[in-house]
């Protein structure tokens, strides 16, 4: 590794300074001499602070590795794991040469790498779930908001008189016009027809001796007959006109404005040691 650092210095002189290499070599020499306490002190001066004293990233990674190994040798496993975690955070693909370090260091390195991989997976899953929460909340807001939907119409209703077709087309004014006028025409027809039939029945019971009553009944029948035809004709014209107008104005769908939903949906992300997911009410 010292040779690698020296090569890196000659290849990229702006990235590695001579002082960095000398400091690293001095700390490494203490490590090779098994002077663990002094090696730890030397490496801590290089990478122990939040901001490493070394400018070369390659030397930073190497220093963290040897500092972690020295920590293991003096029984400071937690401090060793912290350095290995920093190393793998800065360089996730870093590989430790198992032939250069004892089994305890290699095993700790693998445990830290596994823990970091699991943490990254959990963070990725959390990010995905948070995106899903945002999507679901957006959908819920859309459901709660007032909206317009298209509702299909039945064309057979256009052939029903009394304004039914107009009401289905959303033309309430015309619907009421045809409903009222056709209802009045029906009422007039029923009234005049009933009276005419009554007078005809009475006429059949009268004889010529009835005199003036016979003339009154006949006069009433003569008046009611045209009225019957008038009301019937008006009813027919209104019904035909209403059906024709409804079919001309017919559209396959109609717009209906739906009110906002009364319920308040709640969506949240829950993360615990045994559960990661989206929870809520809809």
Tell me what you see in this structure:
This protein is mainly alpha-helical. It folds into two domains: 2-94, Serine Threonine Protein Phosphatase 5, Tetratricopeptide repeat, CATH 1.25.40; 150-258. The protein is 65% helix and 9% strand. The chain is built from nine helices and four strands. It has helices at 2-11, 18-32, 36-47, 57-73, 77-90, 103-144, 164-168, 172-203, 212-248; strands spanning 147-152, 253-258, 266-272, 275-281. The protein has a two-stranded antiparallel sheet. A two-stranded antiparallel sheet has the order 3-4. Helix 8 packs antiparallel against helix 9 (212-248).
Total beta strands = 4
Taking strands numbered 1, 2, ... along the chain, how are they ordered across the largest sheet? 1-2
Q: Helices and strands, in N-to-C order? A: HHHHHHEHHHEEE
Reported for the largest beta sheet, the result is: 2 strands, antiparallel
Low-confidence stretches: 1-15
Helix content: 55-70%
Query: How many helical elements?
Result: 9
Strand content: 5-15%
Rg is 49 Å
Structural class: mainly alpha
> What is the residue-averaged pLDDT?
82
Distance between the amino and carboxyl termini: 60 Å
How many independent structural domains? 2
- Anisotropy-based shape: rod-shaped
Lay out the secondary structure:
Elements: H1 2-11, H2 18-32, H3 36-47, H4 57-73, H5 77-90, H6 103-144, E1 147-152, H7 164-168, H8 172-203, H9 212-248, E2 253-258, E3 266-272, E4 275-281
Antiparallel strand pairs: 1-2, 3-4
Helix pairs in contact: 1-2, 2-3, 2-4, 3-4, 4-5, 5-6, 8-9
Brief summary of the model shown:
By secondary structure, the chain is mainly alpha-helical. The protein has helices spanning 2-11, 18-32, 36-47, 57-73, 77-90, 103-144, 164-168, 172-203, 212-248; strands at 147-152, 253-258, 266-272, 275-281.
